[in-house]
Amino acid sequence: MKEYTRETLLTTVAELQSTVGSSNLCIIDVRPAEDYAKGHIPGATHFDLFGLSLIDTNDAPLKAFMFMIHHVLELRGVSEAKEVVFYEDNSGMRAARGLWFLEFFGHPNVKMLDGGFQAWKAAGAPVTSDATPPKTAPFKIAERRDVLATTDDVLRSLGQKQIAILDTRSEGEYLGTHVRAARGGAIPGAIHIEWTDNLAPDGKFKSNDELKAMYDRAGITPDKEVVSYCQGGYRAAHSYVALRLLGFPKVRNYIGSWKEWGDRADLPIEIPKSAK
Questions:
Q1: Which of 17, 80, 125, 266 has the fewest C-beta atoms lying within 10 Å of its C-beta?
Q2: Higher pLDDT residue, 275 or 259?
Q3: Has 26 been annotated as catalytic?
Q4: Any idea what the Cα angle at residue 230 is, between residues 204 and 254, rounded to 5°?
Q5: What is the chain's alpha carbon radius of gyration, rounded to the nearest angstrom?
């Protein structure tokens, strides 16, 4: 099984600077296109993952969605032979979702730039507005179903003491006061820790000690399997990365998330009385 550490999942500005220009490196800027156009890391290609969501995790739509994501990543030059680094403004959810997709596809060497473009600029590292056309690459995949959760997986996990369901949305979404699907509320038994709580004020991930203390307090511990969810699998991917930084061995992203769950009247929900 892959070993998860801060060193395997995050890269620093200094580390990335030392490898910029390498033929074995693929840097992907996942910010909005206008931000990329204003300035980006030299050699970075652009792929804004935002808005590409799946709201039906049954087999056929799941396979079709993942086929599309895999194809677009190949068009951006991703291959299993290259180190891939995703970045955005900070250590945010877009970059985390990019990392999670490559985890699902079994990529051996994918990282986020900790602190993102803000950290890059703060360090005085070079910035360019030259667009680098990506070269299509073949990307052989080995799908890891163990990092993804479907509706059926989540249903089977309800009430299981060895599985923790992590709600990474805002407090309003969790409590059902901010409704973004046919129904508001939460998956029964879910523990609420908003994804932004993973970040320090400088936009980098909190230290492992801080993250461990926060998740320990909520009862989310490495001996459990953790299933994270949000609205569409972005914020959930961020908390997936945070738990991997701590070496959690079993973490899944429920990519259908609340949009799928909340829209299906046949699935159970609860309206929490207060944020835990």
A1: 266
A2: 259
A3: no
A4: 105
A5: 18
